[in-house]
Each structure stands twice: as structure tokens, then as C-alpha cells.
Amino acid sequence: MVLPGVVGFKLTGKLRNGVTATDLVLTVTQMLRKHGVVGKFVEFYGEGMGELSLADRATIANMSPEYGATMGFFPVDHVTLQYLKLTGRSDETVDIDFEKEPIGTGNDGKSIYFKDIWPSTEEIAQVDTRIPSHGSIHKDSPAAKYLLERGVDRRDFNSYGSRRGNDEIMARGTFANIRLVNKFLKGEVGPKTIHIPTGDKLYVFEAAMRYKADGYDTIVLAGAEYGSGSSRDWAAKGPMLLVELAYFNHGGILPFVIRNLISSQH
User: Fold this and answer.
1) Do 133 and 235 fall into the same domain?
2) Single pTM value for the model
3) Do 131 and 219 fall within a single domain?
4) Could you give the 3-state DSSP secondary structure of residue 80?
5) CATH number at residue 223
6) Domain that holds residue 11
């Protein structure tokens, strides 16, 4: 399992009168975009952290898609403990030894430990094969070319997750995950496919556009886990956009996502 890099963001002082957490988070976002934190964890720390309420911290952490990070978080301190008390929990809530203490009880009355529900390395790798990608936009990808053509600097590409409201980017990012395995490529890992008529190896989006020009209909064959997880909305919308873009001049062709037709056993 590849662990993400962690970027520390030190907070000092306190907000002046009239300055809100929104003002702060916009400044933080600007600074982190300039630094570059795509695919990383951002930990906020420092004495200035104690001047922020839990709501202010949540505002900053929840903006992680905007500054491109996988997540933003604050360490536990007295503000965290105060919140736990206000919500009916004690200080001991954050002092659980997950190796020795159960986190709950199952329907059979047996204790449940954290290790019982935490996925294995193999399972994490499978979950990380997202359709579409949430990660950084590769410099040579169709999405990168689209942004460059519109004057967007590479350092401002950010991630697919932060641009999920842009259908042009997400159509290009639907099959852009670098961990995808396309059986047309005989096990090769990467976001590409074979253009059947010519044998050319292309990004999936580029192949779809070439099929458009040649007047071919296309179909997506996917396994049982296709579209599972947090990206399931774009797992449906992405292929729809690809086919709609590819066959726009034909009035639109209904795309099919066939589950369970191809499995790893065949």
C-alpha cells in the first residue's frame, strides 16, 4: 500500500475582528494550491490552532477538495475534547487501544475489534481502483491537454476530485485511474485501451473520440465491483458522457454498463 505524503500547515496568532473562518480558508486554499498538495494529507498544527473553534476547523478541513489534498485534518486537543463532552462523550473516547479494546459488539454478542473491520492491503488496493479517478491530473492525459488548451497552468491543474463539477474534465477522467487494468492490454496497468480497428494504444477518451469519427458504436464491459465506492455517480455519468460525446451527431446512443459479464476468472 502506497502511503500518501503529509504536508504540515503551521497556524500562528489569531483572526482579527471581522475576519471569518471563510476568509482564512480562502487564504489557506490559495497558499496550498501554490505549494502543491494534490494526493497528500494536510495536517494543520501550531499554537494558532487553539484559537479556532471546532466549526472553523471543520470549514478548513472540508475544503480539502478545493486545495487538492486527499484530506485535511487537525490533531486532537482541548477543543476536540470539549466538543466530545458537549456531545455526551468523555475524554476516554479518544484513548482507545484499538489492539486490545473492542469498538463494539456484534449481533452474536461477541466483541468487535478494529482489526475485524479494517480492510486488508489487497482490499485497499482494489478500492483504490476508482472509476473515475480522484487523483491528480497527469501531465500527458486528455484532461491535462484540455486544460492547457484553455490557458490553465500545470500547477493549477489540481485533482479530478476538485473538478468533479466540470463534465468536460470528468468525461476525460472517467477511465483515467493509473491503476486500471484493461484486458485488451493483456494485464498492463494504466488508463489506456486498444483502438481495435488500428491496434493503436490510446487513452480511453481518445479512443472514444476516434470511434466517434469512424462511426462506431461502443459498449462498456465491467466487473462486479464497477462503480462501487464514493465515485459511483460518475461511474454512471462518465460512460454516458463519453458515448454521448462520441455519438452526439447521431442523436445519442444509449450506453450500456454490463456488470458481472467479465470477471477476473475469465
Assistant:
1) yes
2) 0.46
3) yes
4) helix
5) 3.20.19.10
6) 6-87
